[in-house]
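can u pls check wat happens w/ 2-oxoglutaric acid
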Amino acid sequence: MGYSTIEVERMGASLGAYVHGVDFSKKLSDEQFQDVHDALVDNSVIFFRDQDLSREGQMEIGHRFGTPEIHPIVAGSNDHPELIEVLKPAGEGASFGTGWHTDNTFFEKPTMITMLYGIETPPVGGDTMWASMEKAYDHLSDGMKEMLADMVVVHSAKVAFDPRTTADKYEGKHSLKYTYSDVVNEEVEHPLIRTHDVSGRKSIFVNPMFSIRIKGMTEKESAPILQYLYDFSTQPEFVCRFRWQDKSIAMWDNRCTQHFAMNDYVEYKRLMRRITIGGDKRPV
Ligand SMILES: O=C(O)CCC(=O)C(=O)O
Ligand SMILES: [Fe+2]
């Protein structure tokens, strides 16, 4: 893909690229916005260094991409409820996103894009990893692709946000504020193989945080198939890993990736600002 206003430096063999030539302290021209959008679709996750991104700037770029979401469980900021301050104080373990997942697949319309801004990042640790669910799909055998082709997966937050096993979240023991909502127990259905609405590429759309079972099967019957896909899709060859600095931005495409936030920097503080952009419902 040719870009006229940015330079794109590939980062991982399977996904990920650094984007140079963008200044998020200013409003992007329509042409540059289109280049950034295309770089995101082409590389699944893109990274920017040394950016001054204000709260208003993050809201503005969010609106350019679509509709910023308000999380039903995790509290946003007072001024802009769409912005979540992801704070991990020194001396605590990280708990937000610390396992493989795709953002908010328990929504009827799962999140399309997430944009995370590093405000205060640790000197070491706290990296984030992404897995290409497109690369994973491409490497499945024809027999497996055929078997999975028409399967539908039930997603829910009922395990990840279960008040019985994650009570500490709701009891205010975390720096993130969680509020219980009936959304937690809802079940939604998404195709197991997802076709990207812009690129047309296929990917495996399951994740261990929110995928509960394959429709028409019991949880026990689904488990080995889902577990195989979790293991297969997060093998190192399909993964890239980003080393954060203050003022870095990562922007990823939840239609075709999973990600994992490392919990390995207990002694350091980490503060990020996050916005997610709503997606659409794929037919099942
Ligand atoms: O803190 C991170 O590196 C990522 C956390 C996460 O899963 C998210 O922001 O969606
Ligand atoms: Fe996440």
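Helices lie at 30-43, 55-65, 133-138, 142-148, 167-170, 219-233.
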